[in-house]
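[09:14] KT: can someone run the structure on this one? pasting the chain below
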Amino acid sequence: MRASLLQIAVNSDETVEARRERVAALVREQAGSDLVVLPELWPTGAFAYDLFEEYAETLDGPSVTAVAAAAAEASVWLHAGSVVERAPDGTLYNTSVVLGPDGGLRGSYRKIHRFGFDKGEAAMMGGGEEIVTVRLPEAGTGTEAGTDTETGTVAGLATCYDLRFPEQFRRLTDAGAELLVIPAGWPARRREHWTLLARARAVENQAYVLACCSAGTHGGVEQAGHSRIIDPWGEVIAEAGEDEEILTADLDLSRVAKTRADFPVLRDRVLGLPDPRPATREA
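[09:31] RB: done, structure tokens below
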């Protein structure tokens, strides 16, 4: 699988409308990749709280529609980062979407852990309640528009602050995830936490991690950048810098099963923890 992470610069001097057009153009340029990933809340910025209400949208709204069309043109699977979703009851959610190579919605995930300690996102948005996985076809199979397959890799979805909660990733692993996709708007002042935790989630779950952060500054918060692609042994196989960048790497997905078989730590788990959430959903 060829994966491309688009580390988008989200700056307050660019309008949301202009950024939608620019990001869609970048997605269109990724033909040849199998999976493309965008950062968290790239239309507004994860810390631009004053824009959340104004630019909240449904999952067929302008941001998702723009990148869905681009994904179809490039014929790629697209994890479209996340948008501010407005639910029918008016509740706002930080919602990730996965789009197929025909631009169709294949999965969505509402961020479970909201950041802000009773302020910002934590005060303005509802929390998700479901662990979500999406099945991605093997490279070269099922990538034509409108097709799916029961073979391939299971991707587990999480967003930014979720990275601090390893129990969520254990549940994703238990649900079959071999690839963990984590869009983020992580602040630069805690960059070391971002890079450390992303690698830890790969090591402890023996899974690939695609950690895609934004660059730039919005809401007065400089972004960490340093998007990373990490293999199941915890080795960083590609890493971006601090500015806008496209990070691409080829993943040998057979390494997940091989790593788990050669060093079978997951089978030695003995502490079963109670499940506080509803049943896992495969989108």
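[09:33] KT: thanks! The chain has one domain: 2-282.
[09:34] RB: yep, looked fine to me
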